[in-house]
Amino acid sequence: MNTQVISNYSRLKPSLLFIPFFILISIVFFLYTQQALNPNAYIHIQKSTFLYINAQLAHYPGLLDNLTQFGNALIGMSFLSIFIYYAPAIWESLISGSLISLIVASSLKKIFTIPRPAAALEHHSFNIIGQHLSGHNSLPSGHSITIFTTLTVLMFALMPRKIHRRYVWIFLITGAGLLVAFTRVGIGAHYPLDVLTGSTVGFACGLTGILLNRKYNIWAWVGSKKFYPFFIFLLIICGVVMMDKILEQQLLVYYLALAAQVFTVFKLTNVYFKK
Predict the structure, then answer these.
(1) What is the largest CA-CA distance in the chain?
(2) Do residues 69 and 253 make contact, with C-beta atoms less than 8 angstroms apart?
(3) Using CA atoms, how far apart are residues 204 and 181, in angstroms rounded to an integer?
């Protein structure tokens, strides 16, 4: 599998970065035409859309609460942890992409300082599921960036060879990513453009992570068997954190993530001590 992943990554062209660049420029142009390049106008032009999406999605609070957790890096990476063994090239790019996304997300939030819905709108006018996030760091959605950084790395890693299957694969991954990303609107944490911007930035971060790792091969040690104890220890720590989350809130996604961690620890341990 790792050989196929490396082959898929080798075919990627830097020109693909024009896609997120064009989308982001289009968003800025749209805001400009709507005279919404300031926080108040930005919130105003999408208030009705936010309220509609929030009202529709809020009918499924349990599903939203589970799906939105995939924007937490600990959850997403738990499900992908088994690739440390089967396809370390995925993790090599994922580490690079995640570090880039962390820097970009924190920087953009400090630049734009857009009030979150709970800080700008009346609480009784929309649904809030989970934490009441009321800071001035709404744009872009950090969860959306994380989701699309991870899915972009995974999408290109497992890209089918046949053209028609590629389109289906891209459609499914993108659709799944947007579905999860828009749970942030459903739980009342972000506006629609926060999510679209975050998703686009996440795609760019994931792609950049692949291209950088392909050129410099910074994390080549990830696939080395001698480093398995490090990952085993790290996964055990993550498992403890996950059990703490389960004690606070018994979400199905937490149990599944913990199961993925346990399975990977078992696999890596077995391989490491196998003669």
Answers:
(1) 67
(2) yes
(3) 16
**Residue entry with tokens 């950088």:** 212
Question: Percent of the chain, pLDDT > 90?
Answer: 92
Helical (H) or strand (E) element with 71: none
Q: What is the DSSP letter of 14?
A: G
pLDDT digits (tens, 9 = 90+) for 37-72: 999 999 999 999 999 999 999 999 999 999 999 999
The first and second tokens of residue 73, run together, are: 């890096």
Q: Are 93 and 9 in contact (CB under 8 A)?
A: yes
Please indicate, yes or no, whether the overall pTM of this predicted structure exceeds 0.90. Answer: yes
CA distance 70 to 79: 10
- Name the token pair of 60: 């499924």
- Token representation of residue 161: 């060879």
Supply 157's token pair.
């890693």
CA distance 87 to 140: 31
